[in-house]
Amino acid sequence: MSKQVLNTIIQEVKASRYFLISVDSTPDISHIDQLSFCVRYVNNKGEPVERFLCFLDQIGHKADDMTNAVFSVLKKYDLNIDYLRGQSYDNASNMSGSYAGLQAKIKEANPLAKFVPCSAHSLNLVGTNAVDCCTQAVLFFNLLQNVYTFFTASTHRWKVLNASVKGLSETRWSARDDACQSQNKNWSLIINALNLMNNDDTEKTLTRNEASGILNKLNNLETAFLSIFWGQILHRFNLTSKKLQGINIDLGVVCELYKSLITYIIDLRSDKNYEYFKQCAIEKSKIKQFQSCTKRLKIRKQFFDEGPSKETTVEYSDFKNAEILQNEYKDDLSTLFANECVHFRSHLLSIGDEAPKTIQDMCGFLRKNDLIGMYPYKDVSLRMLLCPVSNCSTERSFSCLKRVKTYLRSCISAERLSDLAIMNIESDVTPKTEFDDIINEFATLQSRRKI
């Protein structure tokens, strides 16, 4: 049955012609490393689709081993690497290395297989590095984890708290948002619970000392300020990260989301927003009066060999931009592509506000209005540009891996694991597949009735 489902997916990939790949690995319950292999393509409706193909066990973490595994899967399913137009992995050096990583070795076989690092992973790395470079931020998140550890150490403490606090996670950065939001929401309840245990003579001395230490840190103005400040930032980062993990997203949307976050952070650093956070922190903490020192404006010295500060940008015409893309994909796009792009742009301008804005909307627009024959190479370019911007679908297959290969089924074979996984993950394809011939053949081979 899994082979039947897999054949359906392979036929869709071949019909789409261009495809993209994403791989990632994780250890299973038996401590065997499983490499998840997923493909992305555009269906006949102009919609991007991501499908799981298989698990590969004990491949290794070296780039050469993973490269051989990728080539073997493409050969096994008869997928032409010449039509591979993109690859997306996390930011590990063995995957995204510019010279010896998996993406570089695949680009040696096909230079048109452009590599796009996972946008969600990249955003998480920005948050991680932003925290690590600030000592106060590191101490604040350690305090968040200490509060969670303290109240979850016993059922009595949790009952005294009578609220919910959440801990951090090393692999899932969105957990920091949940922890920060729960602390801001239950700030007064946490303070009251710590005061009760600190002043309760029946509590153990160690418990009272821990409650007193956490309470002193929470009553600081800096802690209150960081709690509000990081709560605002992490909430926006978390919502953006969830958007980046979607399948129906393209590079244009990713750039827009990144730019929106950059503008948002710049706006937060303005004087008016600082005053807002400061007043909220004063109200949250016990400090009623706060006098800020005047900050001296730093002026960067300009050297004699420097030019004007304004950056100059080079603008290309629509024809020039299209020719650059056509030269990159000579085997896929005709020399008529540039003129076709200008015509398509005029077509969209004539529509006005109802014109599609994203790459995916343009693909659907061409199919909905039966314009593929009019703009054939524009359709090809749009399908190639719908490359994966994250490998989150690959990581979602790990959830299925944990459901299929459990403690009681730890000795399941690699082939059976992939078969069960593909029927579970691709649950939208499995019910639509006809299994009558397979059932009849199985019944014939396993028939025990005497003729």
TrEMBL record:
Residues 382-428 form the HAT C-terminal dimerisation domain. Pfam families: Dimer_Tnp_hAT, DUF4371. One of its GO terms (molecular function) is protein dimerization activity. Transmembrane segments: none annotated. This is Zinc finger MYM-type protein 1. Residues 2-101 form the DUF4371 domain. It comes from the Eukaryota. InterPro entries: DUF4371, HATC_C_dom, RNaseH-like_sf. It comes from Macrosiphum euphorbiae (potato aphid).
